[in-house]
What we know:
Shape: elongated
Distance between the termini: 104 Å
Strand content: 5-15%
Radius of gyration: 30 Å
CATH architecture of the largest domain: Orthogonal Bundle
Structural class: mainly alpha
Strand order of the largest sheet: 1-2-3
Order of helices and strands: EEEHHHHHHHHEEEHHHHHHHH
CATH topology of the largest domain: hpI Integrase, Chain A
Amino acid sequence: MAELVRLKKRPSRDGRSFKYYMEFVDENGKRKRSSLGHANKRKAEKQRAQLERDLKLGIIKPKSMRLSNFLKDSIERSKGQVRDSTVRETSKALRDLIGCVGNIDFRNITHDHGEKYLQYCRDNGNAPGTVSKKLRHLKRLFQLAKERRQLDDNPLQYVKQPKTPTKKVNIYTPDQCFRMVKAAGEYEAEKPYLEWKLLISMALCTGMRRGELLNVTWSDIDFACMSVEVAHKDSTEHVWEWHIKDTDRRTLPLTSEVFAMLVELHSKRPDGYPYVFVPEDRYDYIQGLRKQGKWTVEHGRCPVHNFTRMFKRILQIAAISKGEFHDLRRTCLSHWLSSGLSEFEVMTLAGHSKFETTRKFYLAVNKSLVSKAREASSNGPESQSGTHLSRTPVSDE
């Protein structure tokens, strides 16, 4: 059997001495060189034999790295496999860990460091939800190191997530939705930039995210079936690269009203503009940035400037004091469930990989459910027995 590790000599500059080094292919298929720093043949041969045994067993010992270099190494290994936003959040979490425990060797991180990190984040004013999110990113980072055989175990595996109070899911009432669509039409007349009336109506009937809507192209619209496909986009001459969150793709139905608005808009749009909602002048500007190499995948998440500011203005016109664009998605998903769709169907249409996400962040307690509970309580054992909490106490006499 051929040797997996080759022992070689590297002469000094003056040619009077040398040091041994090893050439081998690591577990990731990359060719490596490792200097041994000495000229002892017997010692070098032992090191070569040990490395070869490790390679054959698939247990190459991890090299020492400080946390900052550990992050760079992990990002390099995961290039193209994770979203830029995930890399950003993980980097922030690890920088906080360095601030807490110092830039130590990643192999020396322990469970105690994880608990100390939680307290460090809380002392710096992070909300429980933020702390929980940071810890999830760190756990995933060290879990990947374990899977890559850089670590024997994930040191943060058993660090408990901080308890976070369940937030109330904000959904718009039917009256608010009506006022919002009307206000969007008024705003369009005042500032004709985005097709806000169609955008809001489509969000309410499909539950699509902001980035999904702004990256919809005309080729995603099935005019025969009255549906829209949410699909990943590769970079082409006319379309920029864009990635879907969670699932690969899904098809969503369009209402007849939204479909009619799309047909009307399509008849007005000039040729050469593939996106449904990106304005023509904005599209031309983005294409110029792409040619200059100044447009990234991250930019494609929201290719329209001042989106939130414009939406807040529409809410103001509609006399709605609280809300955000993502609440349109929550409103749609909650409506689907209350209208009879199963939990699995809502999860599938929402594009979630598990229903816990749908339930926790999107489904509000519907008023009809509260009414049903009230009616059930009214017809409960207490009312049937003729007893009431407000009855007049019976005298002892």
